[in-house]
Design a protein that fits this description.
There is one protein chain. This protein has 371 residues and is α/β, with parallel strands linked by helices. The protein folds into two domains: 233 residues, Type I PLP-dependent aspartate aminotransferase-like (Major domain) (Aspartate Aminotransferase, domain 2), CATH 3.40.640; 121 residues, Aspartate Aminotransferase, domain 1 (Alpha-Beta Complex), CATH 3.90.1150.10. 37% of the residues lie in helices and 14% in strands. The protein is built from twelve helices and 13 strands. The strands form three sheets. Strands 1-9-8-5-4-2-3 form a seven-stranded mixed sheet, sandwiched between helices. Strands 10-11-13-12 form a four-stranded antiparallel sheet. The chain has a two-stranded antiparallel sheet with strand order 6-7. Helix 3 runs parallel beside helix 4, helix 9 packs parallel to helix 12 and helix 10 crosses helix 12. The longest helix is centred in the last third of the chain and has 19 residues. The radius of gyration is 21 Å and the shape is globular. The mean pLDDT is 97.
Length: 371
């Protein structure tokens, strides 16, 4: 049997291991935050925002931002039904009610037209998740937010490398943005996240909340000004992040190359849809994805089985959040319920060989044309 193809893994070089070793050996005492501050600076300069705060996860960054906006019991937060649980968990933890709306059939991101119908006097925020590197329609979302006085938040956990029109990077356009550095992501620290914003007051509140409620300007030692959280990144994790940021152009370019190669190999097949890349934008291609046309009759289970037989990891499209047992079903969200039944994520780690990409493509080809 051929070697197994993983759906994703990080790109780690001697640079990452040397930075991590330096942090482990020397990053203590008055140097215990050096790599963290350096990582935050590198990241905000790359994304193009004024402020950045390294966190323990993207989920933590989202929790901090929502808390700083005052989201609490009785509030409503609008988000796409197609999401990983991490996007809605902070909403629930803060006591607010998630309002699930359907996704756009082409972008697989939140459908702007449906947001207008979901807004109520209790709406506190709109979360736009850039799914798999695909970009939500930020121009439409920001216009809706401005018209109603509702902040738009960008969950960019999967969108490092994605660029909206006019060279605006994913996560830089909303009231705040969040990112993930999980081991599966394009840029990794093993685990971790980042909060970014251009709002100085919001930045200061999140900074305080992220450090047990201790304000930066507080002169009293061990004196919290509010009940906060412990969502800090370690210096060793940040050291790995610093090395990754020195390679970020290479890392993001390679993900896009793999995406383009899949389109070359599979683009002539009838009835397949790929991650969209509208004119003037760039898809970060964190997770190249194939959606089968209904007429083909190829379901998720068929694809999972075919990949297993070829010794290739299969990663399914996210289930709708409202289908999970802790929420009430929203069956009117037809795209969120129907698309996952005929979609699959394709392996796309940085050092995949062309032969491995070809093996994956061959599975899809055989499913579509089994002769």
């Amino acid at each position: 049997m051929q070697n197994r193809i993983l759906y994703t893994k990080p790109s780690i070089t001697d640079l990452e291991t040397s930075f991590a070793a330096d942090a482990a050996a020397n990053g203590w005492g008055d140097k215990c935050y050096d790599y963290i501050y350096r990582f935050e600076k590198q990241f905000r300069e790359h994304i193009g925002t004024r402020f950045a705060i390294a966190t323990s996860s993207c989920t933590g960054a989202l929790h901090l931002g929502l808390a700083a906006l005052g989201v609490s019991a009785g509030d409503e937060v609008i988000l796409a039904d197609t999401n990983w649980i991490a996007t809605v968990a902070p909403v629930v933890h803060l006591g607010a009610k998630p309002i699930f709306v359907d996704i756009d059939a082409h972008s697989w991101c939140i459908a702007p037209a449906l947001i207008e119908r979901a807004i109520t006097p209790n709406t506190k925020a709109i979360i736009a998740t850039h799914l798999y590197g695909n970009l939500a329609d930020m121009d439409a979302l920001l216009a809706i937010g401005a018209a109603h006085g509702i902040p738009v938040i960008e969950d960019s956990a999967e969108a490092i490398g994605s660029v909206w029109t006019n060279e605006r990077r994913a996560g830089s356009m909303g009231r705040f943005g969040t990112y993930s550095f999980h081991g599966t992501k394009t840029v990794t620290c093993g685990e971790g996240g980042m909060f970014v914003t251009n709002d100085e007051a919001l930045y200061e509140t999140v900074l305080t909340l992220s450090n047990h409620g201790r304000a930066r300007g507080q002169k009293k030692q061990f004196w919290p000004d509010m009940v906060g959280f412990k969502y800090k990144m370690s210096n060793i994790q940040a050291a790995i992040g610093c090395a990754q940021m020195e390679r970020i152009d290479t890392l993001t370019a390679r993900k896009h190359e793999i995406f383009e190669r899949y389109k070359e190999l599979l683009g002539t097949l009838q009835g397949l849809s790929f991650n969209p890349e509208p004119p003037g934008t760039r898809n970060g291609a964190w997770m190249p994805t194939v959606v089968m046309d209904q007429a083909l009759g190829i379901r998720r289970e068929h694809m999972v089985d075919a990949f297993a037989q070829a010794n290739i990891d299969a990663r399914v499209f996210f289930h709708p959040l409202s289908s999970l047992p802790m929420f009430q079903p929203v069956l009117t969200n037809r795209n969120a319920y129907e698309i996952p039944e005929r979609a699959i994520n394709l392996p796309s780690y940085h050092d995949m060989t062309d032969d491995q990409i070809g093996r994956v493509a061959d599975v899809i080809k055989h499913l579509v044309n089994p002769q």
